[in-house]
Amino acid sequence: MCDQESYGDQSMSDEGSSSSPFISNGNLLLSEVRTIIMSALSGANYGAKVRLPHATVMTFLFRQNLPLQEKMKVIVRATLTHSANLASFAFIYKTILALLKIHRRRNLSQKYLPGMPAHPCESIIAGGIGGYAVWGQYNAINYQIALYIFSRVIVGLVLLIRENRTCLFPSSISRTSKVYPIFSSAVWATVMFLFEEYPHVLHPSLKRSMDEIYRTTNTT
C-alpha cells in the first residue's frame, strides 16, 4: 500500500549500502532531531496552556467541597497529564516518521521535509502507534480528548467526501448552512431523549451539567 515510487524518483541502487541515509545527510539528521524536540516542547506548552485555565475553572465550580490544597492538586495533576500526553505523542509521532525514513532507505532531500511523512500511510502508522501508546490508557482527560478528536474527524471526513465529489447528496443540500440546523436539531433531540429516558448512559460530567439545568426546578 505504501509504494515508494509514489513519493519519489530516487534510485534504488544504493539499497545495498550499509550506511544510513542520515549519515550522509548530517544537517538533515539534525533537522529531524530538532523537529522531534520542538514538537514535544510545543505539545507540552500547548497542553499546559489549554488545560490549566480549564481545570482551574471546572475545579472551583464543581468541586467546591474540596479544600484549597486538594483543589490545587487536582488542577496541577490534570495540567501535567494533558501536557505530558501531548508532548509524548508528538515525540513518538515525529520519531516514528524519522525511523520510517531510515527503514525505507530514503535519501533525505529537500522534497522530504524534516518531521513530515514521506508517504500518507506513514502518518497513519505513526499516529496509530502514538495513539495506542499515549492515549490508549483510559482516564478522564484522554477520554475527553478522544471524543473531541473523534467529532472533528467525522466532520473532516464528511468535508473530504464532499470535496472529492463522492457525496450521495447534491452539493446544494450538503452545504453547512442547510445541514447544520438539521444536525444540531438531531443532536439535541437525541441527548434530551437519553437524558430523560436513559440518563445512566450519559457521561457523568454531562449528566451533572444537565441535572443542574433541567432538574433544579423539580426539587425546589
Number of strands: 0
Helix content: 55-70%
Largest sheet: none
Percentage of residues in DSSP E strands: under 5%
What global shape is seen? flat
Determine the structural class based on helices, strands and strand pairing.
mainly alpha
Work out the helix count. Answer: 7
Radius of gyration, whole Å: 24 Å
Compute the separation of the termini in Å.
63 Å
Quaternary assembly: single chain
Give the SSE string: HHHHHHH
Average residue pLDDT: 80
Residue windows where pLDDT falls under 50 for at least 5 positions? 4-24
Notable characteristics:
68% helix, mainly alpha, 220 residues, flat
Task: Set out the fold topology.
Layout: H1 26-62, H2 68-103, H3 120-135, H4 140-163, H5 176-197, H6 204-214, H7 216-219
Helix pairs in contact: 1-2, 2-3
Structure notes:
This protein is an all-alpha fold. Helix content is 68%, strand content 0%. The chain has helices spanning 26-62, 68-103, 120-135, 140-163, 176-197, 204-214, 216-219. 18% of the residues are buried. Residues 4-24 have low confidence and may be disordered.
Question: What would you say about this model in short?
Answer:
By secondary structure, the chain is mainly alpha-helical. The chain has 7 helices and no strands.
